[in-house]
Amino acid sequence: MNVLIVYAHPEPKSFNAALRDLAKSTLEAKGHVVRISDLYAQDFEARVTRGAFRSAKDPDMLNIIGEQAHAWKTDGFAAEIKAEIDAIAWADFVIVQCPIWWFGPPAIVKGWMDRVFVPGFTYGRGKWFETGGLAGKRAMLSVTVDASLAAYSARGRYGDLDAMLWPANLSLRFVGFDVLKPFCAPKVSESPEIRRHSLEAYAARLAAIEGETPLFFHAASDYGDDDLLKPGLKPAASSPRDA
Ligand SMILES: Cc1cc2nc3c(=O)[nH]c(=O)nc-3n(C[C@H](O)[C@H](O)[C@H](O)COP(=O)(O)O)c2cc1C
User: Fold this and answer.
1) pLDDT band (50, 70, 90) for residue 44
2) Which atom, in ligand 1's list, is nearest to the CA of 100?
3) By the 8 A CB rule, do 137 and 93 touch?
4) How far, rounded to the nearest angstrom, does the alpha carbon of residue 65 sit from its chain's CA centroid?
5) Who lines ligand 1 at CB under 6 A?
């Protein structure tokens, strides 16, 4: 596989960097080719502005989706966005490696999605979910937290990790990825033993990652014109809607 690790942490000596390096070495040992988008090192812009585009379809009013669609058709993206689009197009498997900050990925990861998951490339004109532009590729969030896994369980203090990560996983699925269950390293600041245990668990998971079954999402065609599941279908997504 061609593997893209989208890495979001400002500190090269962070545990997130250790997880990134472990993923690279583990996957390369299995014969995969690994590339890294280091968003902080690239000084990746998180805000959607006119800077995303080399020209303007409408200079009077910034219609973001309109400008993105136009830039997609005219090869009009700024270099840093084009580089990310090309990297995703190259990849069979995308890993997003980041800490959890305020119960979600850091702003720079959201900005990467806002600016890179553009219409034409990833969705639009009937392309979404299983027909999304990135269909056939896989993606996985790999996150770190300072709390315990118990805290992120259904009865835990902070609630179910899958519910917390639902917006990010839904975005990945919306554009067509088959989404693998997130990897979560808990209690990162507590002890070297816990960090070592997480590194071992992540390496074991990655070594067998090709055989994993993606999370279940309903097909777009399971929903009617009223945006509800068609009669007779039960909600079965790997999401808060399980409950
Ligand atoms: C701004 C900020 C917000 C944070 N919010 C959370 C949080 O919501 N939940 C949590 O478990 N840890 C939270 N943490 C702790 C980080 O998740 C933790 O420091 C990080 O995962 C450790 O990995 P690192 O050493 O690679 O930075 C937060 C840390 C920062 C700096």
Assistant:
1) very high
2) 17
3) yes
4) 20
5) 9, 14-16, 99-103, 144-147, 188-189
